[in-house]
Amino acid sequence: MENTDRRSALVVIIGGIIRYRITESPVFQRLVSKGAVVRSPSIHAFKRDWIKIILMGLVFTYILVNYGIIFFPTGLSYMTLLKIPPIIIYVALLVGALAGVFGCIIGGTISDIIGRKMVLLISTTLNIIASYSYFALVNTLNPINIIIANIFFNLSIYIGSGTAVTFLGEQFPTYYRYTGAGFSWQLAGVITGIFLSILLPFAIVSARGLLNAWLYIFFMATALCILSIIINLLLLKETKDVKIE
Questions:
Q1: What are the residue boundaries of the structural domains of the chain, listed by start?
Q2: Alpha carbons 81 and 83: distance in angstroms, whole number
Q3: N or C, which end of the chain has less CB nearby within 10 Å?
Q4: Model-level pTM?
Q5: Which of 189, 194, 215, 193 minimizes the C-alpha distance to 204?
Q6: Which long-range contacts (CB under 8 A, 24 or more apart) does 76-83 make?
Q7: What is d(CA 191, CA 237) in angstroms, rounded to the nearest whole number?
């Protein structure tokens, strides 16, 4: 316990130093210099952009939910129930997570070229395919297929994650950007909690076990991707070339 407290204190100190050394963005500094910083950004955010807060929360929900109900921890439990050797499971999870890092870089980079919305469309479309192929490949019990399943799934998710924060921040004006983006992301978190704590267990119980529930999980993942596609195509504007103010 004492060692844990010391490590926690060290993390807090390091985090404080990093935050102290990071300067505010130029657009926010200009806002401060003009004396235009609002006292209650949450009130302004909900008064002017409450619909956008909800839409942005919904459009990114697939990233948080599908990661949890398919890759981790569900994927770990699923592979364990299939009696796949632990070393293969750990390698697959590790390689998949590393693939997610590259997916994030790829998504963020190409979003500056083809736009945020197009990257999200690519991500959601790939994630529908990956959500099905994940279980199909893992069920073969072939180590190579298991690793490929984890790589493909993480790439499909993190390509969208690579542009998510940028797209989210660009939706709101500077004087309540953090508040608007924060509420949207927390809404996605609330929905994630509902899926992980209520819908996923219900699916597992209804299917009489996790191994039989993979098709239910696939349908949940697909529904969220389709919701994201509809909102993205019909209700959100591209922000790649929009000047942030």
A1: 1-37, 41-235
A2: 5
A3: N
A4: 0.90
A5: 215
A6: 77/210, 78/135, 78/138, 78/210, 78/211, 78/214, 79/138, 79/146, 81/209, 81/210, 81/211, 82/138, 82/139, 82/141, 82/211
A7: 23
Give every CB contact of residue 2 below 8 A, 6+ residues apart in sequence. none
Rounded distance between C-alpha atoms, residue 44 and residue 179, angstroms: 9
What is residue 4's predicted lDDT score, i.e. its pLDDT?
62
Which residue, among 171, 167, 172, has the nearest Cα to 108 in the 3D structure?
167
> What pLDDT, on the 0 to 100 scale, is given for residue 163?
95
The DSSP code for 96 is H
Mean pLDDT across the stretch 93-114? 97
Q: What sign does the CA torsion over 128, 134, 135, 137 have?
A: positive
pLDDT of residue 34: 65
Tokens encoding 126: 């790939």
How do residues 59-80 score in pLDDT, each as one tens digit? Answer: 999 999 999 999 999 999 999 9
Dist CA 179 CA 190 (whole Å)? 16
Please tell me the class of the 41-235 domain: mainly alpha
